[in-house]
Design brief:
Elements lengths: L2 H9 L6 E3 L5 E5 L8 E5 L5 H11 L5 H7 L5 E3 L4 E3 L19 H4 L12 E7 L5 E5 L5 E4 L6 E5 L2 H13 L26
Antiparallel strand pairs: 1-2, 2-3, 3-4, 4-5, 5-6, 6-7, 7-8, 8-9
Length: 199
Amino acid sequence: MNITQILAQIINAPYKDRRTESNGVILLCSVPERGSEAWYHVVHPPLQNTEIDSLEREMGMLVPSQYRELLLVANGLNLFSNHLSFYGQRLRIDRSPGAPRVPHSVAYSNTFERPNHLSQSKFIIGGYFWDGSRICLDRITERVECWYPDFRKIRTSWASLETMLSAEISRLQSHFDENGHWISQERPTAPDDDSELDG
């Protein structure tokens, strides 16, 4: 499946409730025990190619083609109650109560937050809530890599973004019930170390 088809499975699943905010953000399956505005999945509306071009100018670097494809479907994702997140372009900054949700900034992650020792071939695209592990897309190999928070060691990697999305959605679904409840908070939601998942 391609990225569009993978995300369509997430969006079109039969959740108990859903809501679309004024800026097009799709909220899927409320999880009230985590907060009045907590949702199992949050899908930000897609970017246009011109907006991604603007993002590239802001960062001073190109967005890898696989991630451009994702941004054209969703400008960031918060899946499984934020346990798996993919970053996007912040089109506005408004921290006032009731302000529209925005994704974590992929530009900030690849500039101000970027470790000096990280190779320029690595493009930071997301992360895991469990321990702060981060997700990178390698421009040379086109592999997706999960790094430990200090970016000193790769935890695991996948052949492509499509492979990673399919594998991680399938894996993380086993951690939650049909209402988005975290089944066991003692069970790590970050990937296993060195579990090479080629596909």
